[in-house]
Amino acid sequence: MRSDIEALRSEVEAASLATPAELEAYRLRFLVKKSPLTELFSRLGSLPADERAAVGKPLNELRQSAQARYDAAKAVLGNGPAGPAKATDDWSLPPAMPALGSLHPVTLTLEEIKQIFFRLGFSVADGPELEDDFHNFTALNFPPEHPARDMQDTFFIRKDASDPTRDLLLRTHTSPVQIRHMLDRKPPIRAIMPGRVYRNEAVNYKSYFLFHQVEALYVDKHVTFAELKETLVMLAEMVFNRKVEYRMRPSFFPFTEPSLEMDIWYESPGQPGRWMEILGAGMVHPNVLQAAGIDPDEYSGFALGMGVERMAKLRYGIDDIRLLYENDVRFLEQFR
Ligand code: DAH
Q1: CATH code for the domain in which residue 272 is found
Q2: Do 35 and 164 share a domain, yes or no?
Q3: Is residue 221 part of a domain?
Q4: Is the CB of residue 140 below 6 angstroms from any atom belonging to ligand 1?
Q5: For 321, which of 78, 105, 124, 198 is 20 to 30 Å away at the CA?
Q6: Ligand 1 centroid, distance to 121 Cα (angstroms)
Q7: If you measure from the C-alpha of residue 109 to the centroid of ligand 1, how many angstroms do you get, rounded to a whole number?
Q8: What is the dihedral sign for C-alpha 229, 234, 237, 240?
Q9: Which atom of ligand 1 is nearest to the CA of 178?
Q10: E strands along the chain, which residues?
Q11: Looking at the structure, do residues 169 and 256 belong to the same domain, yes or no?
């Protein structure tokens, strides 16, 4: 048994304890409940009493020195970042900074759009995401059979058979806030209406069932199409921070007449340039002014609406809208 103890002692003394891995291997070999050391201790019991003391002493010393070697090596290597001081610590280094969150690219884009409109004298108005048919469709001059009123696009919350204008739905655009805002106050009106909107769309790289829009509404005496056009060009150049090549195509929306869609020429690395639609706009339809209690013979106005995710994708070269909703920190922390 003495020779077993000596063999174990040489093994303990020869073990290298230079790395955390070696430290852990050492602990598992010598310091756990089932180790050669505890095995020797258990053999002590079967020795004659006089021999027991003679063998027990060196065995106890071995246990203590094995533990002491471990403790000393552990103090030098430390317990990771929170461990005791290491020889390599440099106290003059700046402290490690805690990870900070960052603003979401949709928020950053929306903030920029808001700042642009603030400079033009627009304020911000707000409306509910749970809307009724009247504000989302009827007052915006959607005819009763318009396809947008179909289940295909709209998330309905409650159908009201006796009065369809009271159907409850998740707003499909921010245009209903135009109606609320006009019913609320007298012209002149200059407001933007940012917010979340919902559509029953299949999810893919370019569409999602919720997204954000910014609506802008300007109503006063003698608001002209020329003012709309100037505003749109300024807006595009300020959002993209450069001179943009643009075109305006005639279009149709029930709530504006005439209506247009604006495209900008867009070039991203590795792809051929192409026209990209950035917004819809037009002169507020007289029926809409009337539904909102404003006399169309006295006042005119323009409105525009754009998708914030789309703007964010173009600004930052993001090619898949789903990235904006996965909350992957590796994606989000690229935007500061
Ligand atoms: N509401 C339209 C949509 O969701 C966008 C829009 C187009 C808003 C033209 C407007 C406008 O104010 O004048 O597709």
Answers
A1: 3.30.930.10
A2: no
A3: yes
A4: no
A5: 124
A6: 21
A7: 18
A8: negative
A9: 12
A10: 123-124, 130-132, 156-158, 168-170, 189-198, 210-220, 246-253, 256-266, 274-284, 300-307
A11: yes
CB neighbour list of residue 111: distance below 8 Å, 6 or more residues apart = 103
> What total number of domains does the chain contain?
2
How much is the pLDDT for 164? Answer: 83
Residues 310 and 183 in one domain: yes
Q: Are residues 118 and 57 in the same domain?
A: no
Domain encompassing residue 49? 2-77
Task: State which residues of the chain have pLDDT below 70.
Answer: 79-86, 151-152
Q: Residue 125 falls within a domain, yes or no?
A: yes
What pLDDT score does 54 carry?
A: 87
Q: Ligand 1 centre and the CA of 307: distance in Å?
A: 9
Give the residue, by CA position, lying nearest to ligand 1 atom 6: 305
Q: Ligand 1 centre from 139 Cα, in Å?
A: 14
Shared-domain flag, residues 22 and 115: no
pTM of the model: 0.72
